[in-house]
Amino acid sequence: MKRFYYILAIASALFFTATSMQAQEESENTQQRARRTPQASRGERANDKKDTGMPELTVRAQDMNERMTQEVGNARWMRVIYRQIDLMKEKNAPLYYPVTPMNGQMNLFSIIFSLISEGKIDAYQYEDGYEDFSEGNKIDLKKMLDSFGIYYEEIAGQGNQGTTFVINESDIPSEYVRSYYVKEAWYFDQNNSVFDVKTLAICPIMTTSGDVGELTMPMFWIPYENIRPYINTAFIMTSNINNAMTFTLDDYFRRRMFEGDIFKTQNLMNLPLQAYCPTPDSIKKEQDRIEGQLVAFEKSLWFQPDTTQVEDPKAAKKASKASARGQRGATTEKAKETKEKTIKTKAPKAEKSSPVRSVRRRR
């Protein structure tokens, strides 16, 4: 019996010892977590940024993007046009609003900036006069943020992870991006009998106010094919009357719902319009001339009826009436001529003979 109580006492002592050691370990773990709280919060902020950013592309989205890619390599005729889209115009406002992300909606620059900061797409340096989309011309994110005065938080990576740049949504300068350069190709594919327009690249332009007035700074070039899979699901409102979001940003570019002015065409001397059009009126005339050339080339591809032979229905009706009147008049004149001929060809009437004296004998 005494042996039983002895064993019970030893078991109780071991139980309380194990409980106390477990409590001590939990306390130490709690203290360690408390000491790591500042670093964990920044890491969580970085993770939250990635989680709330643009989604990763699925295999289906990548396949759809490849199928929707317009091939211009087989084009027998192509003309490259550069346009400037002013977001302050009402027709281009869907690319500008909302200025800051709201209810899960972002404007075009916010989407582009998020994709670049998360490393999902590459941007290329803006070169005056040409575009270079090679590996050596990619922009450095840190240098770009510093050159445009964008606030960010730099978090050193651990292990194989690189440096992470955390930018608050309020620090994205989407408010100052008020215009875009758009590079597009008008082309005719003879193999498929297609005349179409392809957006090649876009360049956001930041506008800032200084002592000398407004200063415009092109930021970088982005191939349109790189961002299309992401903006293909970004729905926008395109009308103040109809608030239903029935179009995406990709639809906005593919359907050419924007309004842009030509400032350059690809030419042998690589000159913009301003280089050989010194006045605003001459620039406007040159823009209209280029637009007319594009329309005229498209019309020349297909059979067009001879407009000189196409009669207005009203004019045709009047002409038919005049023709009918002319025919009736001609018939009347012909009848008159025939009657005159008939009258002329009739035998003349016998002249009246002199009175004949009677030969009867007179008594």
From TrEMBL:
InterPro entries: Gliding_motility_assoc_GldN. The keyword Signal applies. Residues 1-23 form the signal peptide. Residues 25-55, 308-363 are annotated as: Disordered. Pfam families: GldN. Keywords: Signal. Residues 42-53, 331-354 have a biased composition (Basic and acidic residues). The keyword Aminoacyl-tRNA synthetase does not apply. This is Gliding motility associated protein GldN. It comes from Parabacteroides faecis. The lineage of its organism: Bacteria, Pseudomonadati, Bacteroidota, Bacteroidia, Bacteroidales.
